[in-house]
Amino acid sequence: MYGAEAAKIYDAQHRARGKDYRGEATEVAAQIRRRMPEARSVLDVACGTGGHLEPFLDMFDDAEGLELSEPMLDIARAALPGVKLHHGDMRDFDLGRTFDAVTCLFASIAYVTSEAELHAALRCFARHVVPGGVVAVEPWWLPEKFIDRYCSGDVVEADGMLIARVAHTVRDGDASRMEVHYTVVGADTGIRHFAEVHRAMLFERRQYEEAFTAAGLDVEYIDGIQCGRGLFVGVRR
């Protein structure tokens, strides 16, 4: 989960690095409507700062978001005034209503810590869609696609800041462990440095599909989209 320092630069650095939120949201909306052409409402779980939720507002009559990180949610509230944004955990939230579709993107599902929690999250998603409704989940890297000891880094300029980011990702049992260091330079703020560690589960395709099926969802895996990680799309029976 992202902390306050990372939340402040989250959108700026991802957009500057080429993250195409609108393009990804358009693809996900198309996948939803291939299965439910009349879909009008969507809940974006782990919506973060609202990067995908913002374009969903143009694609659905009713779009809401749910996020566990309060710093991320604060930024989303400022960016999307008037939009219903809920604080909650993907494993056990209850909004008291259903939607035509539930999405969970940018590999956020991998922040659960076990296969049991994966099943709990999918059950929760399924409870929040109508019969015939769609659940779309972007996984973290499948084990066969994961690159152990992966190093990455870049420097971008955005929102009046220079942001340097370096990351090192290793396999840690049935998960990946990514250590990320940031150096942020601003004319008024000077130089600051902070680091975060993110642990993401490396579930197999079979484990995702079993969790969808157990939750009462007929699932299909679409390879190649969403930055190459693919997308699991399920329809509630």
Automatic annotation (TrEMBL):
<dbReference type="GO" id="GO:0032259">
    <property type="term" value="P:methylation"/>
</dbReference>
<feature type="domain" description="Methyltransferase">
    <location>
        <begin position="42"/>
        <end position="133"/>
    </location>
</feature>
<protein>
    <submittedName>
        <fullName>Methyltransferase type 12</fullName>
    </submittedName>
</protein>
<keyword id="KW-0489">Methyltransferase</keyword>
<dbReference type="Pfam" id="PF13649">
    <property type="entry name" value="Methyltransf_25"/>
</dbReference>
<dbReference type="InterPro" id="IPR029063">
    <property type="entry name" value="SAM-dependent_MTases_sf"/>
</dbReference>
<dbReference type="InterPro" id="IPR041698">
    <property type="entry name" value="Methyltransf_25"/>
</dbReference>
<keyword id="KW-0808">Transferase</keyword>
<dbReference type="GO" id="GO:0010420">
    <property type="term" value="F:polyprenyldihydroxybenzoate methyltransferase activity"/>
</dbReference>
